[in-house]
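re: that complex we talked abt at group meeting.

here r the seqs, copy pasted straight from the sheet so there may be weird spacing, ignore it
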Amino acid sequence: MNDWYTYKQKAWERILRDKEIGYLDPDIFDVLEAFFKRKDTYTQSSCSGRITIVDAEFPWDRKKSSVVYKNHLGIGVEDFIRTISKGKVWNLWLTVQGPIFHVYTRTQEEAWEILRIARSAGFKHSGILTINKKGILVELRTGVKMVHLLKQNYIEEEMVNLVNIANKVLLKGKEKMQKLKIALENSLNSHDSMELGKNSERKSEVQYHLS
Amino acid sequence: MNDWYTYKQKAWERILRDKEIGYLDPDIFDVLEAFFKRKDTYTQSSCSGRITIVDAEFPWDRKKSSVVYKNHLGIGVEDFIRTISKGKVWNLWLTVQGPIFHVYTRTQEEAWEILRIARSAGFKHSGILTINKKGILVELRTGVKMVHLLKQNYIEEEMVNLVNIANKVLLKGKEKMQKLKIALENSLNSHDSMELGKNSERKSEVQYHLS
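got the structure back, here u go
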């Protein structure tokens, strides 16, 4: 992986460009920054968590599905009414997704360390997806999730309760994202000291190494 | 990992015992069997997919949460009425979860092969969780998921529609599980021929190996 640091550099430039244009999730930049501060880590496509309303037979469908509402900061009752009043082709699903990070590390040792840090911050559904020229791809996910089947008509009370809980679920995901950012920042010192000492490397070689 | 085959043997005996007692999911045995037919693979805790109704503030809570309904084959309108009529402490969540398999492999090469097979069968949220004395732990998950906030009272039509769609979601997970079983069975021949030839090993050593 000679090009690894080039990939990291390109990924960072892409993030700055997306931030400039406004493509980047409004609340994710400082978390990505915390990842990039780790020498052997960079992030690819990531999401700070969002609320969507999707028109699809099933919420995981990609074909024959359209996103009719999407917001990373929450949903208001007015947004909700406006969106569902437009009708549907299949089913309307109100989906709240927690934060998801796709992280490339240079070494397996760093991948395990990222997983350890992420799990400590509540990213329990995290694992190594693959190894390719860009590095070792680690996906970090929380258990924060809501996938709610919507109907056509709501009484006010029911609608307000649904919107409130959806926003609470989103907030729980954002809290875990902040916890992750802090855990990453705290890890930097210990990570540096790991690099000074040899224990971590020796330990890693007992377990596995990348050839 | 000298004990690996002992762990596999113990895992298989545990499955047979659970099947005997009735602890095993009613529709999972032949899929587990297909995993065990692969020399370097065995399964740990796995789930064929299920519908639950959980009383909790948030559906992912473990503490302060109780499962008030659970069935791996589906839910009927009567079950639904009976369950929600008992009231709640927090919120009632109707959760449909697709199949999940926890697989231990003896080598990294086998872990990547299991991931390749699983993804080909629609288990898209799959990855390597950790490496320990039992082997390389791979989690196989689909995107099949419904996490629906329930209310106190339903009109018949709404309730019937909700129950129907929940059962359809469950069925989609079961279909992916059958696809995985077939993919595993089809892989056995090609796996054997991989063991005869040396190509696969050479390929694997270019990528990585377990030390």
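couple things i noticed - Chain A is about 45% helix and 25% strand. The interface with chain B takes residues 58-60, 91, 108, 112, 115, 125-131, 139, 141-149, 151, 158, 161-162, 165, 168-169, 172, 205, 207-211 of chain A (CB under 8 Å).
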